[in-house]
């Protein structure tokens, strides 16, 4: 039975790692999208100023 519990531990850790990786990727993607929108906003502002 210890091998069964080790397998469960491995699966749990593996799934936690995947959730962690996916959440980091999502945060990075969100930052990139927000930064691109921010750059577009800055471009519009600079056009209005000049």
* Biggest sheet record: none
Query: Low-confidence segments, ≥5 residues, pLDDT <50?
Result: none
Overall strand count: 0
The termini sit apart by 73 Å
Q: Report strand %.
A: under 5%
**How do the SSEs run, as a string of H and E?**
H
Secondary structure class reads mainly alpha
Total domain units: 1
Radius of gyration, taken over Cα atoms and rounded to an integer in Å: 22 Å
The total of helices stands at 1
**Overall average pLDDT:** 86
Question: Can you describe this structure in just a few lines?
Answer:
The chain is mainly alpha-helical and 50 residues long. Helix content is 96%, strand content 0%. The chain has one domain (1-50).
Tags for this entry?
single chain, 50 residues, 1 helix, membrane, transmembrane helix, transmembrane
Notes on the structure:
This protein has one domain. The mean pLDDT is 86. The chain has one helix and no strands. The protein is mainly alpha-helical and 50 residues long. The longest helix is centred in the middle third of the chain and has 48 residues.
Layout of SSEs?
Elements: H1 2-49
């Amino acid at each position: 039975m210890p091998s069964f519990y080790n397998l469960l531990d491995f699966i749990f850790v593996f799934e936690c790692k995947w959730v962690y990786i996916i959440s980091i990727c999502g945060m990075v993607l969100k930052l990139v999208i927000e930064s691109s929108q921010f750059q577009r906003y800055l471009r519009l502002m600079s056009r209005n100023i000049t």
